[in-house]
Amino acid sequence: MGAAPVPAAGPAFPHPAGYRWRRFLNWFPLGLTYALLYMGRYNLTVAKTSLGELMTKEDFGVIFGAGTAVYAFAFLLNGPLVDRIGGRRGMLIAALGSMAANAAMGFYLQAVLASGTAADAPLRLVFSVLYAANMYFQSFAAVSIVKVNAHWFHVTERGSFSGIFGTMISSGIFLAFTVNGWLLGTAAEVWEGRPSQWIVFLAPSLLLGVMAVVEFFLLRDSPGKAGFTDFDTGDASSGEENAPPLPTREVFRRLFTNPVILTIAGIEFCTGVLRNGVMHWFPIYAAEVWVLPQQQIGRAHV
User: Fold this and answer.
1) Which residues are CB-contacts of 162 (< 8 A; sequence separation ≥ 6)?
2) Among 84, 187, 184, which Cα is nearest to 140's?
3) CA distances in angstroms from 101 to 198, 227, 279, listed in the order given
4) Most exposed among 87, 176, 211, 227, judged by the fewest C-beta atoms under 10 Å?
5) Taking the model in full, what pTM does it have?
């Protein structure tokens, strides 16, 4: 048998400087927005370690569990939805929705802490609803990133880019735990020790609002929508640019009958349990048992 045919090399590389600069203006704010979504997702853990028994471990487990369950099942809805509406709209929905949910949690917590009757407030119920809403909107982000960047990078470029982009969005862990920890400490000094845990919800909300405005003006779904020429990216969708979208039932059939996808889903579930145990329950353990200050707990995540 002869050797397998070599696939086409795709567009000539490197891209023109103008294209590379415009692509940078597309993906860099996109990655920064996703990092800030981390800041507005894991801030619940930072708030819990500071609130103490006002948010018990049982409360935290219920609230975080509600959000995690919504986040998982929302992908089944939002994946096909983003495939139809485009990654730009999906990312704007993620940023604006999370901004609103975090603002609601922040203002509610501020009102509860200022009321003097915080112990009687339905914190678990309200936060379960608001945090679940936050996680629903956050689920738009990952699929939107894939949808957008797939049009801007040839398949031969994606390995090195994924490393850079993955490192960038992972900096969201630093924002979530270390920067939110700094905000707590600074707010305590500014407000002279008065309860100010609401800052870890309002600060990400404000930053996400800023990034939503930036993304509105800069983010585009494809080079063709930014004044450049679309090209064949050489991936599995090559040649299907003008094909009608698959029916939703067919999308689900392919998902749930593909052994590779099911294997990856099982692996992600198991690693997710381990990751969440370390990222969310260890800080609570460190604060209660080791009695570490918030700043040291934040540095332990980085």
Assistant:
1) none
2) 84
3) 13, 35, 22
4) 227
5) 0.87
Give me the phi and psi of 2, to 5 degrees please.
-80, 170
- Angle 131-62-98 from CA coordinates, rounded to 5°: 10
Tokens of 124: 């678990």
How high is the pLDDT of residue 119? 76
* 298/302 Cα distance (integer angstroms): 7
Structure token pair of residue 282: 């260890």
On the CB side of 200, CA atoms within 13 Å amount to 29
Q: At what angle do helices 57-85 and 248-257 cross, to 10 degrees?
A: 120
The overall longest dimension of the chain from CA atoms, in Å, is 81
**Quick one: which of 187, 157, 191, 148 has its CA closest to 294?**
187
For residue 251, is it left (φ>0), alpha (ψ between -120 and 50) or beta? alpha
- In one-letter notation, the amino acid at residue 146 is V
Distance CA 248, CA 216 (A): 28
Reference 172, options 31, 299, 27, 35; nearest CA is 35
DSSP H helices in the chain: 17-39, 43-51, 57-85, 87-115, 123-152, 158-173, 180-190, 199-218, 248-257, 259-276, 282-285, 294-301
Segment 142-191, tens digit of pLDDT: 999 999 999 999 888 888 888 888 888 888 999 999 999 899 988 888 88
